[in-house]
Amino acid sequence: MKQYKVGIVGATGMVGQRFTLLLENHPWFDVVALAASGRNKGKTYAEACEGRWKMTVPMPDKYKDMVMYDATADAEEIASKVDFIFCAVDMKKDEIRALEEKYAKLECPVCSNNSAHRGTPDVPMIIPEINADHAEIIPAQRKRLGTKRGFIAVKSNCSIQSYVPALSALMDFEPTEVSVCTYQAISGAGKTFETWPEMVDNVIPYIGGEEEKSEKEPMKIWGHIEGDHIESATTPVISAQCLRVACSDGHMAAASVKFKNKPSKEAMIERWNNFKGRAQELNLPSAPEHYLTYFEEDNRPQTKLDRNLENGMGVSIGRLREDTIFDYKFVSLSHNTLRGAAGGAVLMAELLCAEGYMDR
What we know:
By secondary structure, the protein is of the alpha/beta class. It folds into two domains: about 5-155 and about 340-355, NAD(P)-binding Rossmann-like Domain (Rossmann fold); about 160-335, Dihydrodipicolinate Reductase, domain 2, CATH 3.30.360. It is about 30% helix and about 20% strand. The protein contains twelve helices and 15 strands. It has helices spanning about 15-25, 45-50, 60-65, 75-80, 95-105, 140-145, 160-170, 210-220, 265-275, 280, 305, 340-355; strands spanning about 5-10, 30-35, 70, 85, 110, 150-155, 175-185, 205, 225, 230, 235-245, 250-260, 290-295, 315-320, 330-335. Helix 1 packs across helix 12 (about 340-355). The longest helix has 17 residues, at about 340-355. The model has no long low-confidence stretch (mean pLDDT about 95). This is Aspartate-semialdehyde dehydrogenase.
């Protein structure tokens, strides 16, 4: 496989830090540029992250002395050095949209962890096992941007990575209505218990914007390309509630679902355990061998035990049973900063490289 030079824009935040760990020994991607806000320009990465390193393992030596760029002011220089960037900046949405388009127009593809472009009709929001074909909208986006190589692709919200894969495996049974409640770890807010002590022994029943994303984003993932845009699906209808809970990592979902063609429990479990997608077909470096795993035990999946399944890139499902209002209910779990954030973006980038979208 070709080697690619990559940049991490937004490298000092929690997701940016996770990117550095995932890419430290990546077989295809070599990090040659780290960027953040202007106040970090000229500092080494170790200096920029001093007192702010949130990972449970130390900063890799290979990054410590790398000198930081200004993500905005140095965009041209960064774009000239890399084949594409990962973007995980903490800015206002309109500023993120402008920054990502700036890189794309500099002919530098953007694999974004941000939500700013998820609603843009010609920006694919890709979960490689589910809707890899949405990459085919990229030529239409390039036409709009006036670019030959540059484009933006985004990964979806971290909360939907727990229940959307489980539902995607059941699509031919035609789910019509879904009620879901997510129990989301504090790392989803970029926090640790040290920096957010009020979360200890606590649950907060509100996460700004999350319920809207949890109801809308799956529809784009399940949608189809129509001309120059992605047309969102109209079913199933999703009702979501999102709670912040006292866990460090791992988002859990409790979902109830109604089907047009109600399957048997055995059929559902068989679909889950054998579900594969384009990421597995291409044998991408970050792809889990088993994307979905069903646990027969009544008390699984558990956040602490199961969030790191398949190096944090697998989804755990359990407690499938009949429901009194819907047809079935189940719980599912994914690692929010691995599958849900940086890992999902790395896997998406691997897909785009393997399919030729990053070629010069």
